[in-house]
Write a structure and sequence with these properties.
CATH superfamily: P-loop containing nucleotide triphosphate hydrolases
Helix content: 10-25%
CATH architecture: 3-Layer(aba) Sandwich
Oligomer: single chain
Largest sheet: 7 strands, mixed
CATH topology: Rossmann fold
Distance between the termini: 12 Å
Number of strands: 7
Number of helices: 4
Order of helices and strands: EHEHEEHEHEE
Length: 154
């Protein structure tokens, strides 16, 4: 695990941009952190690193935002409103765990909310998460964030 201390939203975006530049198709990044920790800020940077110029915003009410126009497509998921793995399967979110592009999942810890596979599920949760790169963002101060992540660039 690596740690990065961000002192501003711009630094958080810059880290995401480096990850976006290094990203390969099939990458899945799972973000966890409190409200206001900077998850969406990091996704904005990833999009910029992929060459995506569209305005990136949290998909809290739509569950998934898809962005094209860059080197790879970006799928931005927000699981805040979903509580169980069954709800995620019913919403059709499993397909984004093996993307043709890059998937970033806000509130990724909710993937573990229900360890039992559902009737519609093809894989148990452990296999679901095998290729997810985990990122935890902790609020340290008003603008300071501690970002702990699996080593995958930057």
């Amino acid at each position: 695990m690596a740690t990065f201390i961000s002192h501003s939203p711009a630094e958080t975006e810059s880290l995401g941009e480096r990850w976006g530049r290094a990203a390969q198709s099939g990458l899945v990044i799972g973000l966890s952190g409190d409200l206001g920790a900077g998850k969406t800020q990091l996704v904005k940077g990833i999009a910029r690193g992929l060459g995506i110029t569209a305005l990136v915003h949290s998909p809290t009410f739509t569950l998934v935002n898809e962005y094209g126009g860059g080197r790879l497509r970006l799928f931005h998921l927000d699981l805040y409103r979903l509580e169980t793995r069954g709800q995620m399967v019913s919403a059709g979110l499993e397909e984004f765990l093996q993307p043709d592009g890059v998937t970033v999942i806000e509130w990724a810890e909710r993937l573990l909310a229900n360890e039992q596979p559902t009737a519609n599920s093809q894989q148990p949760t452990a296999k679901w998460l095998a290729n997810v790169r985990h990122v935890k963002i902790e609020i340290v101060g008003e603008t300071e964030r501690k970002i702990i992540y699996d080593g995958f660039g930057a």
